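Recap for those who missed Tuesday's class. We walked through two folding examples back to back. For each one, the amino acid string is listed first and its predicted structure tokens come directly after. Nothing is annotated here on purpose, so try labeling regions yourself before you check the end of the notes.
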Amino acid sequence: MTTPCIICVAITGSLPTKANNPAVPITVPEQIESTQEAFEAGATIAHCHVRNDDQTPSSDPEKFAALKDGLEKHCPGMIVQLSTGGRSGAGQARGGMLPLRPDMASLSVGSNNFPTRVYENPPDLVDWLASEMLKYDVKPEIEAFDLSHILKAKEMQEKGQLTGRPYVQFVMNVKNAMPADREVFDYYIYTVKRLFGEDSPWCAAGIGPKQIVLNEWAISSGGHARTGLEDNVRIDRDTLAASNAALVQRAVELCEKYERPVATYAQAREILGLRPAAA
């Protein structure tokens, strides 16, 4: 396959702490350093959360602004994708960073079960987040935890709430949500192509030990791949990952195995229909 593979690194998330793995970057300087290493290893999207000093999740726009500025300085051209996820805040606070005009932001378009709670994405909040992304020219990454979320993205596209080709990410192996099921995965791909076109880009993320499994499924099937310490803190059952870059390197090795070039940031921006990197 000749289509370049975009590698997204989810650097921190809302849950992993240094007790889980000392390499999890918590402070903004740690996040910038960890992302720079991952960028140099081949990642071209940084999926970003921010934390408080006590490692709890935050949606503070000032923290997001500092992180975005640092990534743009130290990882020039890298696509900055900020999270509007529900663990970091409630209601419209989840979109408080969108006026910063990052390249992308995550957008969960429906609710589902998480390990110990319901991940609530009520329709009015989804509509508001989508409208803010349109207002500030931020491309959504549709996080699909369920087949219905892909169909919802099509409905939103038809209503003009999403412009251009949606970029859908399949998230699998969250406890109590969709497991890593190959037949479901293949049907997700079929559904994206049926609804949005054969050449529509898509991505996949696997949680915990299924991270490397989903990396391989996506890369071998012509999609794009997400890795990083947000989703998985280990290289294998007995070994902690040394860094986000170490997990990116595993995805790069799979690209080599399946003879796919790793996308440069310019290629990734073109594939996703993003504005060029700032000079």
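Example two. Treat it independently of the first, because the proteins are unrelated.
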Amino acid sequence: METKKRDLVALASIPLIMTLGNSMLIPVLPQISKALGISSFMVSMLITVYAVVAILLIPIAGYLSDRYGRKKIIIPSLIIAAVGGAVSAVAAWLMDGMGAYSVILAGRLLQGIGAAGAFPIVIPLVGDMFKLEEDVSKSLGIIETSNTFGKVISPILGAFLGSFIWYLPFIAIPFLCVISLILVIFLVKPPKHKENKQSIREFLKTTKAVLHEKGRWLYAIFVIGGISMFGLFGVLFYLSEVLESTYQLKGTLKGLVLAIPLAALCLASFVTGKMIGNNKAAMKWIGFTGMTLFTVSLAIAGFNDQIYFVISLMTLGSIGIGLVLPCMDTLLTEGIEKEQRGTITSLYSSMRFIGVSLGPPVISLLLGANHWVLFLVLSSVSAIGALLTFFAVKPEE
């Protein structure tokens, strides 16, 4: 693992940059809504369209990475993400109203295409780079920590940039993508790839066989990943709206408040990745504990809408998500053969993106409802994840 530090730094930049490219917009969504004269639901689509297109293309990117090599897919994907960011930035800068919104949306769609072949391919590439399960779990813990660290600084950075000009976060995105691109080109040296010449038909047949053989726990992990992201991004969207509309918190101060639960998630991911090693039974029970903690925190938060109370509980719940993600990543990566790893982990990433895409619009529709109803929905969905972890995730299989 010591010899791969530079590779890990470069790879960790991808989830960091991809997270910034999406989550950095969350604290400025109310500003975007006012500047362009669009509804809360329409502005939430800027997050959702990015995730939806990624959902559709991630499995294809996974197949291509299995066939042609991980790095050969990551590099053009980062270029596409940078171009999409530039399109959105130019539209936000030079246009206004619905015209600007339409072009920004198109740019976000391009970003989603790029995202499909970037972060999701990092997980199987880490699995390829290390032979020891303990090294894989530690490295995936670092990758998840980078991902969650991006979520920590994104509301602060997004709110800070937005305090000057509302579209400044859009302008920052393509520059960040280029930084990650340069790091990957010069620092990442993946193991020699043996080209997989499977046809699409053979690929589908093999994937179907893997899902048939290991489907029960694989599907459970897919859904757990989606539920985790749904709850997390739903809560972030809720807090962003409430902090600005009810408590008049704007700019960097709002970003700092949003960063509190995310910092807890980041620390929990890092510690969990270090701690679990190759103990698959521990991964299951730590994951179950994390989902239960998140569920209970959401349920209790529904009984009081005081912002200090809600943020305290969401910080506790975020620790739960930080326990879950490295465990699910490692169980999945180590449970699948190298030849199918890119494809199967890409399906998992698709489910996580589904969670990301559904969180903001669902919560935007529930904002007008009772506070208790909103958190009842979130905690009920999270409870499904906890039950799946308990009953369906079976490392011994």
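Answers for example two:
The mean pLDDT is 87.
The two ends are 28 Å apart (CA to CA).
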